[in-house]
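Quick one - first record:
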Amino acid sequence: MRLSEAKKGEKVKILSIGNRGGTTRRMVEMGVTRGSAVEVTGVAPFGDPIDVRIRGYQLSLRKEEAEAVEVEPIQ
């Protein structure tokens, strides 16, 4: 599934990040990396932006960015 599909309160693990040039590089620099655990803390109406907690800090991602991130639920 994609990070953009995760619901508020859901915890997921990043499997891969799609190649979108500068956007991918910027997300990696912010700590969005393969294997990282992510908790969705908020989703704005219409799904943009998506607020997440990753590596102990809050981050807001645009829906377009979140669609590039493949994740799996953490049990």
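second record:
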Amino acid sequence: MTDLEEQIPVGKIIGTHGIKGVVRVFSYSGNIESLQCASTVSLTGVGNRVSEYGVKGVSTHGTVFLLTLDGFSDINEVLPLVGAEICLKRSQFPATEEDEYYWRDLIGLSVFTDQGLLLGTLIDIFETGSSDIYVVKGGEREYLIPAIADVISHVDISGKRMVITPLDGLLDL
């Protein structure tokens, strides 16, 4: 696997903050922990190349994160970085707890009922506030599966499969 293949997009630089070389970051997950754990980030899309930078600091500011990179101390130095995508290597991500998964690992799983019926492939995930919703597409049919313990029976990342126990009427919608 090349370094480029290992890069996982976690956010995008959307602007600058102040005059001291700090950038504003829109996070794809809204979770600051991944960036706080990283000692370096890779930026893609700046001059069509991948560049790695040390992380000096990360903080929240409203709905965005503020990121300070090593080697930048002035707004004029970071202006060319606006629009760049921020990527981390998989090894930089915090470990997950038992029965906790990164979305990236779930998307693409084949989803079966506990009766062995293949519903389709998990193609998207969205947040509702109380729980995530898994979007499963099988043929022309699309299912919205709540990511709750009563429904999700088993997840096998290495086997690329998920087993659900549908609540009454869930598959009729």
